[in-house]
Structures are given as structure tokens and as C-alpha cells.
């Protein structure tokens, strides 16, 4: 998979995250690792920072449920508006994490 194809795969996966659910940067990297040969949460973060504007970027959080730095207020407002499960000011990853291919 070329770097350009990887960017497209990351963005396509983020587009599939349902409202009220989230994925972590690492979970996205892990999900694509077999096909892409890459498994870097940092790379996913860089892709989201550079190209993520048109996709539901607010549904991508770190593994502790923290939203993207610099856009916390907007991300939290969007997540709360989607009824994303929260706990102590963060996304409740046990309830909100989405895993592609699982019911």
C-alpha cells in the first residue's frame, strides 16, 4: 500500500465510525496494519491533522478517551451532541470504542 493509499484508508475508516462511537489513533493503525504494513498511532494522528477536516475527526481520540488537542471545545460539543458516552470529562472508551466488523 502506498502512502497515498494509506491516507485514503485511514480517512475511509474514520468516515465509517458511527455517531456516538469513537476509535483511538492506535486502534485505527492496528486495524489497518495487516493490509498496510504500518502500525503507527502517530502516523494516523499526522494524517488526521493534515487531511482529517472533511471526515468526522472528532470521533478519533487517544486511547485514554481524550479529544484532539487544540480543538477540545468543538470536539466535545460534537461528541456530546452525538450522545457519545462520557466519564470524568473524557470519552468512556469501554462504552464508546467502535471496532469495525463487530456487531
Automatic annotation (TrEMBL):
Pfam families: DNA_binding_1. Residues 8-70 form the Methylated-DNA-[protein]-cysteine S-methyltransferase DNA binding domain. InterPro entries: ATL_DNA_repair, MethylDNA_cys_MeTrfase_DNA-bd, MethylDNA_cys_MeTrfase_DNAb, WH-like_DNA-bd_sf. It comes from the Bacteria. Gene3D superfamilies: Winged helix-like DNA-binding domain superfamily/Winged helix DNA-binding domain. Keywords: DNA damage. This is MGMT family protein. It comes from Phytohabitans kaempferiae.
